[in-house]
Amino acid sequence: MVESMSGGVRAASSRWPIYVALALGLGVAMLASLTLGYKLYGLDEVWMALFAHDGSETATVIAGLRLPRALIAPLAGAALGMAGVMVQTLSRNRIASPDTLGLNAGASMAVVLATVVFGVGSLAGLSLAAALGALLTSIIVFGVAAGAGGLSPLKIVLVGVTFAGLAHAVVEIVLTSNEAQLQQLLFWLSGAFVDRPISLFFNGLPVVLVGATLAFALTAALDALQADDATAASLGVPLLAVRGLTFVAVSLLTGAAVSMAGPVAFVGLVVPHAARGLVGLRHRHQLAAAALVGAIYTTLADVAARFVIYPVEAPVGAITAVVGAATLVLLLMRRLA
Amino acid sequence: MSDLAIARRRMMTGPATIAVLAVLAVFVILFLAGVGFGSTWIPLDTVTSVLLGGGERTDRLVVLQLRLPRVLAAAIAGGAIAYAGYLLQRITRNELASPGVLGVVDGAALGVVLFLAIFSNESNALTVPVAWQPLAAALGAMTAIALVFLLAGRQASSAIRLILFGIAIAAVAKALTTIFMLIGPIYQAAQAARWLAGAVNTINWSEVQIMLTVLVPVGIVAGIAARHLPPADLDDVSSRSIGLNLPVYRIIMFLLAALLTAGAVAFAGGVGFVGLIAPHMARLLVGRGRVAGVVMSILLGAIILMGADLLIRVAFAPLEVPAGTVTAIIGAPYFLYLLMRKDSTNG
């Protein structure tokens, strides 16, 4: 909690350069996402494709293939970053994230089951299924923890990871027994921004906005919750209601990210640490910074994925998994967890 | 040793022997059922007579060439992983430890996928003998467990922290495995994907032979080394003060467990949770004795994997669902149950 001191006293006015820098960074990252890749495009070609589409092949590739990922990657990253902040506050656990608590896996399982068992086909239906899956998983994981009389932060993570393993096994079985739908479903399971239709972005955007609005409405309560339950209660925070609403916000954000991009690993673990380092512990700022940092992070990871094993494209989830696991190791070694 | 302890040991001998015999009976029945069951049912007496050298030609072909390698591989792999799990749980004094959670299984899998990616030619054939595959798995497994320990450093005495480092290493290994599968030929990636989830259905005799050649000597060495395991009711400091459970000894045991896991994973794939459940059930059945614990763990591990494989053939035929999924669905809730029991860990 050393960072709380330096961050807490930092004057509000000194933060705006950080936000400006982050916004600029996001702009640069998105431009990189549009121009860099298997083929390199100039800024003039990007401008043409977006604002003066002339029907040429270049313009079609940029508008049809590059643009969706340049929009979906930051939106998913922002959603996972904010979800990560709330999960870490809720469990008072710096190694919690939508992944280590199994929420991503739960959302993926829900998408697969909704498709195969209930025959859901619409994008909106699958987004809803993903959010519900994340919500159910968070209730189960925290329920198991509470049922065991308040598990240590480390054990909650073990519960989450185990639950994720269970969800993966179910997905594996469903996929093996429904090979016809395999192609369609792998789309949601591989954790990537490539080949996503732009409709996914417009489908996910309102869900993320609702989740983010809810999150920002809860910032004061989350600040109080950061200390301990007794302090928060004495400050007049309705603990149960706040926890419940935070779960809903986390589930909406995680579900939206999974329905757009599949489970992109460990984004929600890494981003909150960077955000706290930049703007301190106030949730208003933590969430805003986490959204921007998350957006930049996934966009850059998506660009990197195009070059790691060039000319083949690596799944962005593999890149974020390596970075995230390394971060987890560092956090464990510094005993921050 | 106090009189009480001796008396307790005498009392344990009776029930323990009965438990071992009962589990042995289950093992034999599952083994015969596993060989008999399939697209055509072969009656148990025919199976027995084929195994003893008789039977008709078609029955002999099906039993000896198709079914037997698969069932044997399941038994060997399950037994080896359970043995590794037993050693890890005893040496870390924590019943949550297992080759899966310590990253050993995913490390071994990464080793195999790297091996396949490097030593395949254009037509997807291996350019080196398949017998080298366990070596690649062993290198991967030992690298993983060594990394877990090096990174954990002084925190290694807390099993929960060790497991979290294992989870991190496993995540890295999984991500790298995905990347290398993409680099490798497409056909091989499809093969590898199924194998990674833990499947014994494609194993042939030569692979069973390699598994045995690797695992039997390692198992014997581990058995000899296990005689120096400290008694389970002795804490870390006391056992070190009487010269047991020293750092070097711990490292040797970890490497032996990694080798046992690698020998199984090399051909049977990433079978999860067997190494966790089997030793735990063994302790429930026969108590904390070492010989009975090892024998029971191996038998139960074999039973779990053979049973999972049989269940898949009964429930999902003709689809080949990986056996690892069934063990994960049984094992994950079991792990959660262990986590929730408060005094079960030293986290």
Radius of gyration of chain B, in Å, reads 20 Å
Supply the number of structural domains of chain B: 1
Q: From the alpha carbons, calculate the radius of gyration of chain A and give it in angstroms.
A: 20 Å
Structural class of chain B: mainly alpha
Could you name the CATH homologous superfamily of chain B?
A: ABC transporter involved in vitamin B12 uptake, BtuC
Number of helices of chain A: 15
Work out the strand percent of chain B: under 5%
Structure, explained:
The complex is a heterodimer of chains A (337) and B (347). Chain A is mainly α. Chain A has a single domain, classed as ABC transporter involved in vitamin B12 uptake, BtuC. Chain A has helices at residues 2-9, 16-35, 43-51, 57-90, 103-116, 123-147, 153-177, 182-189, 198-217, 219-225, 229-234, 239-261, 267-279, 283-305, 316-333. The longest helix of chain A is centred in the first third of the chain and has 34 residues, at 57-90. Chain A is globular, with a radius of gyration of 20 Å. Residues 1-10 of chain A have low confidence and may be disordered. Chain B is mainly alpha-helical and 347 residues long. Chain B has one domain (3-344): ABC transporter involved in vitamin B12 uptake, BtuC (Orthogonal Bundle). Chain B has helices at 3-36, 44-51, 57-92, 104-118, 133-152, 159-183, 186-196, 205-226, 236-241, 247-268, 274-286, 290-316, 323-340. In chain B, helix 1 (3-36) runs parallel beside helix 12. The longest helix of chain B has 36 residues, at 57-92. Chain B is globular, with a radius of gyration of 20 Å. The two termini of chain B are 30 Å apart. Mean pLDDT of chain B is 82; it is low at 343-347. The chains are: A mainly alpha (337), B mainly alpha (347). The interface between A and B is large, with 45 and 45 residues.
